[in-house]
Amino acid sequence: MEQPKEFVFDIPVGAGVATRANADGPPATPKDAATVILVRDGADGVEVFLQHRVKGMPFAGGMTVFPGGGVDTRDADASVAWAGPEPSWWAARFGCDDALARALTCAAVRETFEESGVLLAGGADTVLTDVTPYAAARQALETREVSLAGFLADAGLTLRADLLRPWAHWITPEQEPRRYDTRFYVAKLPEGQEADGATSEASASGWQRPGDAIADAREGRRMLMPPTWLTLSELAQFATADEVLAAPREIVRIAPTLIRENDHVRVVLEPR
After folding, report:
1. Which residues are in the Nudix hydrolase domain (predicted)?
2. Which of 218, 231, 120 has the alpha carbon at shortest distance from 170?
3. Most buried of the four, 2, 6, 53, 119, by CB within 10 Å?
């Protein structure tokens, strides 16, 4: 799909978009991060799992987002049991080296489990349907008491990279005080598993059709960042979750520029 070069949406002043104090100084160095777009087939078409971030969060507070977060140094542990496309395959799609590709994919699986309770793991050729035995491990991952590799090894589980697909690559605008270099993945909710909102980072969560989420944003019932808005617009074009996973994607890094115009923010998308 061809990305639009520019689109405009309204953000209330002080909500969702921050401006760094040293605007004339060098921009903050972006931190590597991974986001997973969880999709499923609903009664009326594709649904996506969304979370409303707690307002006090230092980044994207009060915004509606997909599960995800920053890469932990331990996500690069090469000992993790792995099934599916190798790190080199992900590296070619996301424009990075193999070590970072491994860390990003591990972070995607870890953050999805921490924030939604969905665990993209199993055996070499099986996928978990019941994650209830791993509730304590989920909490330990969130508090960083254990690493993903350590948890999977102790549980005898394999990371199922084949359940993920590459979707997009966004970098936070230079005007923001906190910046992330984020790779977006998409995954279908595994059969038998349920997504929940049992995370300290979200005040609410749930499944919604992409078009309905955009309508809520237009009518002021939720706030969306540019990557979330555009991704939802893309997802709204598909009839089933399998179609989403099968969609061909050319991953181009998008580096938006924010231009403030009174109470509006104009977002210019710049592929780089």
Report:
1. 30-230
2. 231
3. 119
